[in-house]
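Notebook entry, structure prediction.
Reason for the run: the old model in the group folder had no record of what sequence produced it. Starting over properly, with the input documented here first.
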Amino acid sequence: MFNTFPHRPQGALRQPDGSLLWRLWAPYHERVQLVIWPDGQEVRIEMTPQEPGFHVHRQADVADGLRYAYRLPDQRTLPDPASRSQPEGVHAPSAVFSPGPFRWTDQDWTGVPPDELVLYELHVGTFTPEGTLEAIIPRLPQLRELGVTAIELMPLAQFPGERNWGYDGVYPFAVQNSYGGPQALQRLVESAHRQQMAVFLDVVYNHLGPEGNYCGAYGPYFTDRYHTPWGQAVNMDGADCEPVRQFVIDNACMWVRDFHVDGLRLDAVHAIFDFGARHVLAELQAAVQVEARRQGRRVQVIAETNQNDVRLIDPPHDGGYGLDGVWNDDFHHSIRALLAGEREGYYRDFGQPQQLVKTFNDVFVYDGCYSPFRRRNHGNRVRDRDRSAFVVCVHNHDQIGNRARGDRPITRLPRSACRLACGLLMLSPCVPLLFMGEEYGEERPFPFFCSFGDAELIQAVREGRREEFAALEFEWGEEILDPQDPGTFAAARLSWEWSGDSPAAEMRRLYTDLLRARRTWPALRDRQATRARLTGPEDADPPPLLVIERGGSRTCLAWANLTSRPQPCFLKEQDGYRLRLSTEQTCYGGRRNLQTFPDTLEPFELILLGQGDEHP
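New structure, fully documented this time:
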């Protein structure tokens, strides 16, 4: 009577003897039939009930690619919630896929340490003209040359149609068919490891999408006790939640075991509701790390959240969940609000130079202090926790795509301000994340897009977008793009162009040089010793200049003009510091040709000073 719930993975699972075991959790039904189509002929097989609520069937001589589905007593024939492959989309039968035949050659690969991570977030469908996982492979060397050490793929779980950000996935175990399916992901990861690059995968465990989501037909995967912005919450702590928790944890472990991914980015964990004694995130992390040890690789689990809560990364013995990292949106918001002057929505909490100082010194701006936007105290303090556990950015898919037209900052801000943002990102002691195209100043937008098949859902999405932006106080002054229009998706494809001495080439040169400095300068490799302050004329309120000091015994200094006007800086050569870089040098698209310390900083200029022989 004191037994724990049995661990019974779901799906069509290849067994050690080569046979195939189908296992389905369907407690709503006493009987379930397995339907298969060998040689195109339909065959129905009565599955064997297995307590509590499972149905199983085992069969020899089953080839990969065999189509199958489950027939319920109400005569519906539905795909497998734990399908590993959906070759014909979300409403069609599932297909058997076995990961074992792939021949991995990355046995010596052990991963990337947290303090060496440079994440590059990309959307498979718009990163290349082909929009496939295979098409990413030829571009890996250029990302490595840039200084990227890990690509982070937006969600791959099978979604409706061929165009989607990925957060409407409905088969968490199946790699999107239009991206090339599961074999293509294996080939991409293998190729990345050859380039000494890690692969992180964005996974969504707080909800499933609205179309093709049949989990609710089988059992209580969802609960009406909590609600997310996307609908019903996943049942993590209610009655019959154990198979649901195992479903999620097994999925996380599958990416590590079968696809050799090096990390998971958990989407919006603040919308995962679990008030049980052991949170599902802590349980997931423990299971992932067991699998990582089996594989002999470092695997990092990073939470995306707006909670500013260090408990996510604190060890379990201190009451935490033990995750490896957490996003820090305050860094992005501080820079965006300050440089662009935006104050709508959550930007209302930002825009003061002192808040940018706090992101360097303390990581979170809101670390227990009062948030006017939320009208309550928010967050908790980072104190001396390792800065390599926090991910920061100046661009990401949300902050670009959740605008009316998906416009990038470079189309609204001076290039000098974008260069300053790059410099601030690279000087942060936290892990930098780049969004695809940012490194060369991509001007093509990244709007929200989808390709649902249900007419009522399509209209609801269109109306929802209009209502969302109508509620904002900020006047966009532009028509909202239709997310269902194929042209909205096509416009988001990267130009991937930075030839010659173009502005794109100059921007990419700045990113490359700063990433090299971050990688090679001892002061910038020190992730803990960071001190920032504001300075400037005594009558300036607030002071216009940001001074950042990095490193312990050996340091580098950065002076940044946070304003659109030239500012006196009173710099002079001292204490062995030498001028190393300015974001306004001509090679980066500015007007400077610096040889000596300047008396004035240009608008939005950042100057980097180093000790010794360091050079970016």
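Summary: The CA atoms of residues 26 and 600 lie 70 Å apart.
The old model has been moved to the deprecated folder.
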